[in-house]
Amino acid sequence: MERQEFIASLVAGGCAGMCVDLTLFPLDTIKTRLQSQQGFYKAGGFRGIYAGVPSAAVGSFPNAAAFFVTYDCTKSLLSAGGELAAPHAAPVRHMLAASLGEIVACLIRVPTEVVKQRTQASPSSTTYRMLLVTLREEGVRGLYRGYGSTVLREIPFSLVQFPLWEYLKVRVSKCL
């Protein structure tokens, strides 16, 4: 992968992810509170709908950038030679690249989500305070609570989405 492609993937992926995360943040807060063991209203209801947004803002760009850089680099490496470089193997290349992208991105996404969701469910607390409480009570391992299940949730979506996306990019570009 060339330097220009790398930078384009990094910046475009980071910006796209940050825009999506920040735009949809209030819906994410409502979902988190609806799923809270405390119940929706005790978890904050519609008050403090942006509780936890600093965590999302800080983690969003690097999370999305990590995914897209890993995806594009892996796709490029797999296309360089060997059996996976063949045109008929393109869907497999895209599946492998997307899966590795999710594994890497979750290294950033999961700690961000842990802090964000805990802050959303306790709107009287700040993001920074929730980070400190998690580290004090559970250590760094607490920030990665749910890493495995998150990866297992994300990979099936990527296995379908990215080969389809790549296929549709080619088909649409031929129509234009």
TrEMBL record:
GO terms for cellular component: membrane. It is found in: Membrane. It is a multi-pass membrane protein. Solcar repeats lie at residues 4-77, 89-171. It holds the Pfam family Mito_carr. The chain crosses the membrane at residues 6-27. Keywords: Membrane, Repeat, Transmembrane, Transmembrane helix, Transport. It catalyses: S-adenosyl-L-homocysteine(out) + S-adenosyl-L-methionine(in) = S-adenosyl-L-homocysteine(in) + S-adenosyl-L-methionine(out). Mitochondrial S-adenosyl-L-methionine/S-adenosyl-L-homocysteine antiporter. Mediates the exchange of cytosolic S-adenosyl-L-methionine, the predominant methyl-group donor for macromolecule methylation processes, for mitochondrial S-adenosylhomocysteine(SAH), a by-product of methylation reactions. Belongs to the mitochondrial carrier (TC 2.A.29) family. This is Mitochondrial S-adenosylmethionine carrier protein. It comes from Mola mola.
